Amino acid sequence: MTTIPRLAAFALLAGLVAGCTSGSGHDHVAAGGQAGPTPLTVEQLSAKVGCSPRMQVNAAELRTGYCKTPDGEFFVTTFRSQAGKDAWMDAAPEYNPHLVGSLWTVLSSRKVLDLLKERLGGDLHLTDHRTKKMRVVG
Q1: What distance lies between CA 99 and its chain's CA centroid?
Q2: Is the pLDDT higher at 27 or at 100?
């Protein structure tokens, strides 16, 4: 299967994960009861790399948008909670590599992710995050 059909299939999987995860319905709260910074949206992350995303999944727990730019094609997914992000990461270990930030992830080829990392930040996950052999490029 080529990369883009695999990523499209993964976007559908993300929607299924969203329906199966439970969340408190609240943004994360830092110690002391103060809310942390508002997480970036799919649209905000996409705008940072010059894209207007085509939404694939728009669920309560996560949102996924597809982008195509001169850098390449990719999917941007944002999560309502860390628990939702963790469930998503656990459900999709074979989709490598991916760029991971605070309550977001981007899926694409390594070449595209290297270019996007310069503008988005995050950590590049090159293998299954659950194994001891995980390699994260900071």
Answers
A1: 7
A2: 100
Token pair recorded at residue 71: 């850098």
Q: Rounded to whole angstroms, how far apart are CA atoms 19 and 122?
A: 26
Task: Encode the chain in three state secondary structure.
Answer: CCHHHHHHHHHHHHHHHHHHCCCCCCCCECCCCCECCCCCCHHHHHHHCCCCCEEEEECCCEEEEEEEECCEEEEEEEECCHHHHHHHHHHCCCCCCEEEECCEEEECCHHHHHHHHHHHCCEEECCCCCCCCCCEEC
Determine the Cα–Cα distance for residues 43 and 135; give it in Å rounded to an integer: 28
Distance CA 123, CA 138 (A): 5
Q: What is the pLDDT of residues 71-111, one digit of tens each?
A: 999 999 999 999 999 988 888 656 678 899 999 999 999 99
Please report where in the chains the tokens 């963790």 appear, as a residue: 86
Residues 55 and 76: their CA atoms lie apart, in Å, by 9
Tokens representing 127 are 């293998």
C-alpha to C-alpha distance for 105 and 45, rounded to whole angstroms: 10
